[in-house]
Design brief:
alpha/beta, Rossmann fold, seven-stranded mixed beta sheet, 15% strand, disordered N terminus, binds beta-D-glucopyranose
Length: 407
Amino acid sequence: MTRLWLVRILGLVLSAALLLAACGGTDDDAAGDAAGDDDAATAADDPATGADDAATDDVATDAAAGGDETEGASAGGEGLIAVLLPDSASSARWESDDRRFFEAAFEDAGLTGDDYQILNAEGDASNQQSQAEQAITNGATVLLLVNLDSGSGATIIDNAKAQDVAVIDYDRLTLDGDADYYVSFDNEAVGRLQGETLVECVEEAGIESPAVAVLNGSPTDNNATLFKNGYDSVLNPLFESGDWTEVDDQSVPDWDNQQALVIFEQMLTAAGGEIDAVLAANDGLGNAAIQALRSAGLDGIPVTGQDATAEGMQNIVLGDQCMTVYKAIRDEAQAAAELAVALRNGEQPETTATVDNGSKEVDSVLLEPVAVTIDNINETVISDEFRTVEEICAGDAAESEWCQENG
Ligand code: BGC
């Protein structure tokens, strides 16, 4: 019998035991213990969790963390830590970056794959709600939540807190929610960097009086509002003075890249092809604009982005995207994982800021974003080992001058 089958059968037996324990009574401890026992099977069973066996089998990690001490560290706290990611379509970051950095951070903290789950709601708020409930049933004591909108996020938080489960808003603030902590970047600074660097790109390209299109992120994401506050503070004075012209400004529901393409194509048609620069709120939206511009045979048009995704970096070396914003997701996941581990251990975590979510001040950790253009790729995403030259210089990008020089 293969190991996979053994794990599956074990999972079934344990699920049955859990069901019996849950039906058996109101004793919190009994339910908690049973849920705790089920962790291994749940983590191994669920392909979406990414709580892979490699984490448990990783000899190097165990050795580095000090053998027995590893046992002690994870045994010191109680229950699972569950990370609730929003989707894999609005940005490549969630699956390509946040997941791997969370895994590394938890392992650095001495946790094993049995101690945490990383789940992805794939853009479905009710799915995220079920994932949160399931994680709590499985013994989660801390949730790290990237909400899909503040309303559904607040419901998840209220439900968790009613069961004494701590909640950290990860990356996106839940407006009027009751999260215990918030870990993110200075998101207005992200938007300011996009605006300021677009101004530099337009000047460098020698474009006078540009006609500018703006593609905002999802109206349901508080970050999209903050990014917009940031870039509007740079662009609005230019529009008001008449130096720049605003062709159009639209939000992209759910940051949907396909919808962004349709929206941008319509903007381009309505403007008779006269768009000279694009403020796009992330790399996915930027790539949608770039595709439409390429199809229309337009090049050399400055387009912004965010997330320093592999695709975004390729568009930069190809000269189709003028900047992205690098947010050190390793640091963000690390800070959030440390908070979560402290809470799991019953300790008081350290924070550096407070943020008003509309109904309360939330203790927070906010990190600084960095603008990346073709001129500082090596000093930022490469030296930080966030992206590799190999992944940037793949496909068409391999032929670019940057890749010829750096590849
Ligand atoms: C994140 C961005 C991401 C966007 C779409 C925002 O909340 O801060 O990094 O590109 O969501 O997923």
